[in-house]
User: Fold these one by one.
Assistant:
Number 1:
Amino acid sequence: MSTRCNIAIKLKEKDLNKELTFDGIHFQRTNADYPYMEVYCHHDGYPENAKDFFFKRRKLTDYESVLNYIIQGDRTSFDTSYMECGEQWPDNRPYMFASLDGDIPEQYYYIFMDGKWYYKERSSANDQPMDWKELVADETPETPAETLDFEHIAREIQALVERLTDGKYTTKELTPDIMKRK
């Protein structure tokens, strides 16, 4: 089953009532009465995948990059537009709409506005949309190997092996090699 979503952007004042072009794609004239631009995404629209794509893989964290992404039109997944699958852009171009009020059409709805990503989920209980939440990047930085305490890790492994085998086996002969990696 596909996890469908919509991805939108609130256009800045400077982009209203004008024609937009990005990466060779010419978009219709925008309208101040319809300041939101949206595309449909068919697969993998759940929040963890959105976070990974928006913040890590594509780094869609500024207005221009998000606008360029959305102007490419509807998508089969976050990674692939329907144009990349051979479909025509006019059949998959973004839609313009007036407000964020009302129903959300798919399971998840993502919008970039005021420099941040927000999302809303359709409630499974009564099919009504839930409240908007900010979508934030995971703040878990990877620990570089040079900051790891290999001596401490070696002692922990050694103690664990000895405890699990009631002292029958030991890792003492491995410890010097592990400690050299400091």
Number 2:
Amino acid sequence: MQKQLSFYIVIFAVVLLTIAIGSIFIGVYNFKESITHTFLNFIFNYQEVNPGDRYVISHIRLPRIVMAILAGAGLSLAGTSLQGLFKNPLASPDLIGITAGSVFFAAVAIVLGGYIKVHLPEIIHYSFLSIMSFIGALVTMTFVYKMSSIHGKTNISVLLLSGVAITALSGAATGLMTFLSTDEELRNLTFWTLGSLAGATWTKIIILAVVMFTAIYYLSSLGKSLNAMMLGENDANHLGISVEKIKRRIVLFSALMVGTIVAFTGTISFVGLIVPYILRLIFKSNYYYILPLSIFAGSILLLVADGISRTLIPPTEIPIGILSAMMGAPVFISILLKFKKSL
């Protein structure tokens, strides 16, 4: 089983690397030299690359590609983990209100930021939107988790209901911010909620990479535990699995990943729903395979979506959140139809 998993990981990694290299040269910018010559010089003889080409690759394309890889991996890993936790293929990071809380705090930053920034150090003004969005995710996660914790145990039903409540409340509050916004603020808020990778920088990537690698370290090895939990929590406890510890770990790191991603990219929906569904068609409900492979599959999906967004209607760029929703909605409908037939 371990050899099979390693084989699949290598295949997915090769596909991801191939798409990532191809994505460097996808877009409206025309490189001065041939693609092969530019790529080889960039790898082996950096100083010989045309300055314009070098800038586009180093400061625009590569940060965007790495951000897509990290964001796709994080969203899909969070979605897969939550589906295993809730035993429900319709579960996603949006389910427990993390995204909604993050969006509300971002709306506050956009609409009321001018009044708040005057009381804050100038050093954080540039990253104020990202910081507020991240705080929103953490506050939401803390509230939902505290609401669902009963005598040290996490009640899944209460967790879901708390997520629904906080999503509705955050949505109403975001609507109020939209109502109070000026034309420029409304435009900024609209584009931010549509999602984009255009704002990727190496500083943001370093922060996201630290969060992602920490989450992957704690979540990617939970496949066997989630398989056991599919049998029921009591049976999993009898097998020596610390169910409550796994619940807390999944909720905490899912919130941390999604909050950080939303803070840097805006809202990108359905990735956490599409990826585990596709993998489940291949590997059934075996989370030993699905969980680690979702990391690579999510990155591949978001890279492909980003490539399409940059090339479909040149020179404009379609917000990636629109594309992810267009891809995710049919999958969501197909899952519902499958459930309907099983009733």
Number 3:
Amino acid sequence: MHRVWRILSIDGGGTRGVIPATILASIEARTGQPISQLFDLIAGTSTGGILALGLTKPNLHGEPEFSARNICELYLQEIPNIFQDPQSWWGNLLRPKYRSFAFQEVLKNSFGTCRLKNALTDVLIPCYDIEHRLPYIFKSSAAKVESESDFQMRDVALAAAASPTLFHPIRIPRSSTGRDICLVDGGVFANNPSLCALSEVKSVRPGDNDQYFMVSLGTGRSSRPLTDEFVSLWGYVQWSRPMLELVMESISESVHEQMKHLLPSINDQEYFRLQVDLPQRTDPAIDNASLKHLQALDQAAKNFCSESGSGKTLDEICKTLLRLSEQNAAGLQV
């Protein structure tokens, strides 16, 4: 007898978080169940962390306050406000490109005073502690048993999205100790948190015969080439803008290659990586916040979910998730 752990992993990608939000909305529509009930662990980096928190925030009745479609609509509505009034080109050389005041207000309105320990299903959100030069990984499972690991969801979301060059690092107080931690976006080491999620489940809930059903969501793959004759002329200033995207995308794809070997298909064990090709001539910048761009990302994700795209794969994923959910609800093992 064995247990099949259901894991959802969501990449970082700034404004491109519209893509996984739209895919998750399609999964909820197909299954008729909220994402928090379909998975045992949701791991998210950067914008993926915000999605993980939003999908597991309870309302007053202990049910999910936001559907994936709600969050997608919030993205389309609020992202242009969050990424507004950037520093001048010269100012961005000396300080982060954006101020976080508008972002903090959106998170305050969305999460209120809800805490990490209240997440409806386990969440895992990688960040990086710049003072100690170590990964800091938020875990709702830890928050439930020790106050030092429990934080307000809105603070965790703000830290998760603190991408270097775009936003200031975020200092979060630890109420139990009087100390604080200074964090940036975990995309600097784990833009694809699949490995973090698998390691967490295996270490905290070891089972010799356990298997893993993982759905890993990317935030879009750019087809725009960087040709040698073009980039060979670049210096520090020219490289500074695309470098963040290149590092995050390379981390995500290298983790994907490892996951394919770590989770070979055995019985109900499956690994699915869902990655949308960005529309041609799309600016892949993770802070491209024009409404036209966001709508193009949303449409690209909807096309991906259609019958002519990856609809059959999504149907297969949803069918398995529902079956595993029924087995869990019945207290059965596969």
